[in-house]
Specification:
alpha+beta; 28% helix; 2 domains; Immunoglobulin-like; 255 residues; 6-stranded mixed beta sheet
């Protein structure tokens, strides 16, 4: 309720722009800036909201589109394509991508292709087709597109990549809001939520906020232990696997 009252107060500062030709500014915020990953975490939903105002604090006189992009920590990833040869699935082509977002979600008030052109979408990574995955070394563009499409499909099935072009609601060209869902499999790290105001295919304003996803409780203790005592953690993991295998063998032997 406090965020809604605050945005309404900003909206009431003016009704029209005194300088219609000037670009607006974005005031952005999120319903939560810290998400705890602990036992029983089943995912959550973040409300991203804000106001679109002129530099004088008045309501924007033009119609603007709003695009919200939430991106998680990036990491390198090796992709391998499997092919069935003589009845066996074997590794075929492969490539290494240097900057794969662990999470990506886009929300907009209408289809991105109707908001910006391909070049602008690529610059700001607006859309799953516009992700800049930075392949390591030279690669045929067609093969790169093939691997990128496969990666997006796999991540989308896991709920880690999403694009909803009806998720942003804009009220009176002042207030906007969007809901982004985070699945239970999200990784810990710093997430960036960036909002773009677009007019006639041009990004005229942008603003961002950060959301920290952190492990807590038993999960945090295990993660800290594995990071600080990697060798001991590895021995314990192997030992536990051996014990579990032995117990399973004994149970089957008794049946």
């Amino acid at each position: 309720m406090r965020w809604l009252l605050g945005l309404l107060a900003l909206a009431l500062l003016g009704t029209t722009a005194r300088a219609a030709g000037r670009d607006p500014i974005l005031v952005v915020d999120a319903s939560q800036h810290r998400i705890a990953l602990q036992q029983g975490f089943t995912g959550t939903q973040i409300l991203l909201f804000g106001a679109l105002l002129t530099p004088e604090g008045a309501r924007a006189a033009k119609d603007y589109d709003i695009v919200v992009v939430v991106e998680g920590p990036t990491r390198p990833m090796v992709l391998r394509e499997k092919r069935k040869i003589a009845g066996l699935w074997v590794n075929a082509d492969s490539t290494t991508l240097r900057s794969v977002p662990s999470f990506y979600a886009l929300a907009a008030n209408r289809p991105v292709k109707d908001i910006v052109g391909e070049r602008t979408a690529a610059i700001y990574e607006m859309g799953l087709n516009a992700l800049q995955l930075s392949p390591s070394g030279s690669i045929d563009p067609a093969l790169q597109a093939h691997f990128a499409q496969g990666l997006v499909q796999v991540m989308a099935k896991q709920g880690l990549y999403a694009q909803d072009e009806k998720a942003v609601s804009v009220n009176a060209q002042v207030l906007y809001s969007a809901r982004i869902s985070l699945p239970s499999s999200v990784q810990a790290g710093s997430y960036t939520a960036e909002t773009f105001a677009v007019s006639k295919g041009r990004v005229v304003a942008s603003a961002s906020t950060r959301i920290e996803v952190e492990k807590e409780g038993f999960e945090k203790a295990v993660a800290d232990f594995s990071r600080h005592y990697a060798f001991v953690y590895g021995l314990l993991a192997v030992g536990l696997s051996v014990v579990m295998g032995w117990l399973a063998g004994r149970l089957f032997a008794l049946m």
